[in-house]
Amino acid sequence: MEFILFLERKNVNQLDRRQILVAGALGALVQGGNVWAAQPAGAAFRIGALNPITGSGANFGSGMQKAILFSAEEVNAAGGAAGRKLEVFAEDDQTSPTAAVLAAKKLLEVNKVQAILGTWASGVSLAVLPMTNTADAILMHTSGAVALADPKINAKKMAYRYQGSSKHLSRAFATAAKKEGLTRPAVMAQNNPALAPHAEGFRKAWIADGGKLTDFVLYEPNRPSYRSELQQVLRSRPDGIILSAYVPDATAIVREWAQLGTPMKWIIPGFGANVDFIKGVTPEVAEGIVVVESVVNEKSGAYARFAQQFALSMKQAPESNVYAAMCYDMVQVLALAIEAAGPGADTVAIAAKIHAVTTGAGTPVDSFAAGKKLLAQKKAVNYVGASSTIDFDDENDVDPTFAAFTIRGGKWQRSYPISG
Amino acid sequence: MDLLWFDYANLALNGLAEGLMIALPALAVTLVFGVARFPNAAVGDFVSLGCFGALAAHRATGGSIAASLAGGAAAGALGSWLGWKLAFQPLMRRHGLALLLTSIGLGFVLRAFMGLSFGHEIQLFDVPLMKALRFGPLLVNPIDAMVACFSLVCMGIVFGLLRFTSAGRTMRAIACDMDLARVVGIDSRAAMGRMWVLSGVICGVAGLALGLKTQVSPEAGADLLLPAFAAAVIGGLGNPLGAVLGAICLGVMQELSTPFVGFTYKIALSYVVMLLVLLWRPQGLFNRVQGVR
To answer: N or C: which end of chain A has fewer CB within 10 A?
Structure first.
C-alpha cells in the first residue's frame, strides 16, 4: 500500500511538472508572439516614461515625467505623428537598476511600449539598454556614462543621449578648475558608473594639461557619514575639491566640511548642487561654491514653450530641471522621426530617421507642429530643442554647452560659459 | 602620505560615532530575534518612520530636541506595534521564514506609505551647523557627540528594563522558552506586544539620531539594515549587549581599515569580518553555546 501510494504520488508529481513545462512553453510562445507582432498603421505609438521618481534622482524625476506627458499632449494636439497618437505609460525606476529592469520589463512586455524615454542614472540606462535592444525599442536617456556610447553596448544604435556624456563634463570641469585658478585640486567622487568615470576623465584631462592632483578618493553612496573620506582629502592640503556627487552625498559631504571649518573652493556638477543642496547645506555655507552644468537652450522657441508648461504644471522654476527640458525634446524628436518615417513604420525605421530630423542642413524648427508642416511639403527639418540644439554625433551623443555658476545668496549666478 | 597617531585616532572616533549609530537598529534586530525568533527586515523602515516622527515634532515645536525625541519614539513605537498587530501576530506560530518574508513586505509597504505621505525629497532637521570640537589634533563633531549620548542613554534604559523590571523578565522568559513561559502563567501576547513597542522606541530614537546626522527620506533607514544585521550577527543574535559591542567593533574596524583598503572596500570588510566570526564562533562573539533542547 505504502509502495503504491508512493508511486501514485510520484506520477502526480511528474505530470505536474510536465504540465507546468508545457504551460510555460505555451505561455512564452504566446507572450513572445505578442511582443514581436507588427503594429497596425494608425495604432497609437506607445512610449514608456521611465524616470527617477524616487531615489537619488527624485529631485528631477517628477519634472521629467511631467515634461514627457505635456510634450506628448502637444504632439497629439497637433494631430499626432504619421497619423498615430502618442500614448504614455509612466513608471518609476527608483534610480535603481534592479527596480528599473522590472519596470522596463513591464513596459516592454505588458504595455508593449516601442520607446523608453528619460532614464536618468547611468546604472539604470546601462541596465535597460540591453532590454530595449532585444525588443527593438528606442531608448532616450540623460545619463553620463561613456560606456553607453560603446558600439558593443549601444549595438543597434537605437539609444540616444540628450545629456553631455561624462567625457564632455570632465573637460568642462577641467576648464572651470583652471578658470577658478586652482593649482593643486583634489577629487572626491561617488563610486558609480557615471560619477567615477567623470572623475577619472577629469584626472586625465587635468594631468594631460600638466596639472597635479593632491588626492583622488572614490567613496560609496548611502553612508551615514563621509567624515573619514573628507579628512583624508583635506590632509593632502588641496586648494580646491572637485566633488562628483548626487544631491544626498554632496549635501552630507559639504555639511561635514562646514563643521570642520577649513577654507576650500568646491566645484560640483549641477545635478549634485541644485536647490535642495543649497537648502540642505544652508545658503551661507553654499556661498561661493562653483557649479558646472549643461545649460538649456534659453533662446529657442522650444524652451519658451517648455518653460511655460513646466512652470504651470510643476510650480517650479524651469531652469532648475535641465533634464525635464531634455525629456520635452525627446518626445518632440521622436514624433518628428515617426512623422518622417511615414505611416506604419517600425521602430528600426523610426530610429533611423532621428539623425535626419535633428542634425544636418534641414530648415531649423523648434516644435513638432512646425516640423510636421515642412515634412508634409517633403522638406528636410532640423529640430532645435529646449535643452540644446540637439545635434547627434556618430555615437548618438549631443554636445551641449556648459556654463559655470557661482552660488551667491542661495542662488546660482551664471559666471561664464564653457564650450564643450 | 604617512598617517600620524592622531589620524588613526580621528578615524577611530569616526568609527565609534558610526558604530553607536548602527548599535540602535542592531539592538532592535537582536531584540526581535531573541524574543520573536525571526530576523526583522523592516527594522530600517521603522527607523525611517521614527525619522519622520522626530522631524514632524521638531518642526511643530520650533526645534525642540526633547520633543523630537518623543515624536521619534512615538512614531517608531506606533509603527512597530501596528506591524506586530496587523502583520506578525497572525503568523506568530509559523516558520521564521514566513515572518522574515512578511517583514520584507512590510518594509516595502512602509516605504511606499512614507513616500506618499512625506514625499521623496531630502528633508533636513533645521539645526544650526555647529563647528567641530577640537581636542588638540582630535576632532569631535557635536552632532556625533549628541547622537552617541542618545544611543548610550537609550541602551542604558533598555538594559535596565530587560534586567530589573518584571516586563523585562517576562520578555526574557518568552525568549528562553515561549511554551514554558505560558505554562507558568506569563501572558506571552502582552509581553510580545511590549517587546515590539520597545523595539519600535529604539528604532524611533535611531531615527532621530540618523535624521540629525544625515538626512530624512523614506529610504534613509533601510540603508542601516545590513550593517545592523552584520553587527547583530557578530555580537550573537539575540544578545543585546553583543549587538551593541558588535556595532561598535564594526564601525571602528571599518574606519581604521580605510588607509589600507580604501573607502570603497571598507563596507565589504565588515562582511568579511562577519564571515570570519561565523566560521570561528558561529554563535557570535558574545554568546555561549547552548545545549540542544
So the answer is: N
